[in-house]
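Figure caption, in words: inputs first, then the predicted bound structure.
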Amino acid sequence: MPIVTRTGPGVNCREPAPLDHQAFHDPLTGLPNRARFMSSFSDALSSAAREKRNVAVLFMDVDRFKYVNDSLGHGVGDLLLAVLSRRLVGAADGALVARLGGDEFTILVTGNRPDMSARLIAQRIATALDQPFSIAGHELFVSMSIGAAVSTPRDKTITELLRKADIALYRAKADGRNCFVAFSDELDALSAELFDLDNALRHAVGRGELLLQYQPIVDLKTDAPSGMEALLRWNHPHRGILSPADFISMAEESGEIVHIGRWVLREACRQTVEFQKSLAGVSLVVSVNVSASEFRQPGFTDNVAQTLSETGLSPYLLKLELTESVLLGDVPGTLEILSELKNLGVGLSIDDFGTGYSSLSYLQRLPVDVLKIDQSFIGGLNREETAGPVLRAIVALGNALGMEIVAEGLETRAQVEFLGSIGCQFGQGFYYSQAVSPDAFVHLFELPPVVVRHGRNRKRLAG
Ligand code: C2E
Ligand code: MG
Ligand code: MG
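Bound structure (magnesium ion present):
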């Protein structure tokens, strides 16, 4: 059934004759198509200019839509778009919603304060997406990134306004997706920078600009490191050392993460073999972070197997860290990939546990060995009364499921003691050591545990 879309007040929109319906509507969603949107937009901009008003445009797409198509098939992707478009129409409250193509949608906002209406619509869209979609037996959690631009007297063409909304959308994605960004002149300059960064990132692996630092994961009973997490840094030629927060989202968005992830895995395995040589007698397990797009890349398991065999690292000394969002939503294929990895002998960890929506029944079915409690819960110990009981519950849950538990972000002795007292076996955090270079990591083992523990050498080690 085609979706009926009303147009907002002030939009001088020519309703196409029934025979023209096909030419102006998207057959999948029933929404106005690009041609219809452009024509309505152009009319709205002209009348706004005459009446000295503004119009706003929202430009949005579905976060990680490609995974839905890749993992569930285009049929499910199409159904999702059709159902999603109904929620968008509901949230748009009368404003014109159009599908430009693929998973890209636009909303044309007119009226007295289109800037405020645009913001409200974005909020309503976020609320409308709170509930998962039930499509062909799958429960899908969907979020959208939204960019917005409001016309100024200088904006003579719809192309210019769409360019601004696109820049805002680009920024929303670079900020980690699932958010709303409104265009501003500063953003224009920032976008040029982001664009350069994006380009430079595509050469970072080839130019040898990436490096890994290692943060010990410590046995809370003995204070001895049982392993380490490999954490990625980018030594940018002009900006110096950048953290993952500055570039991982961008790499995920551009797809470069797959290339980067392969480098990370190989380097972490290679370095761990080196660590075994320099620290004879100490068996360390390396944990490597894996993004959703890497995990879903066809041939991911084969690449892990090949990397292990080429670097000579035992699979039992590798753990892959996946966030709840990767494991979430019962995406078919997830369990198969996890079992293939388990069959290789590789360990699996749920990273940042507690920040996503792990359904407890699902957790039970996952062949996961380690649960890493997100550092926000540990930080909460100093501020929130409920943090202690929540941590107790998470540790009890992990123990009941037979998982190892690692507390992330331990910064104080009180936190270490509390976590130890409630049955958490492992911890990681600045209290012990920051992530350090491979040389400094080896040096940690030359220090008596108490020094590692109290982080006295932290500055020296981090340098
Ligand atoms: P994560 O996997 O949860 O890693 C832990 C993060 O917490 C690291 O930040 C670490 O430096 C920081 N951290 C550790 N202890 C403490 C503490 O006591 N206090 C505080 N405030 N922070 C602490 P980092 O290195 O900036 O990494 C951030 C995130 O970037 C990681 O979170 C991970 O999700 C992602 N990441 C890092 N390396 C890679 C990588 O190689 N591939 C992918 N896909 N993601 C990566
Ligand atoms: Mg991690
Ligand atoms: Mg984490």
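DSSP finds 20 helices and 16 strands in the chain.
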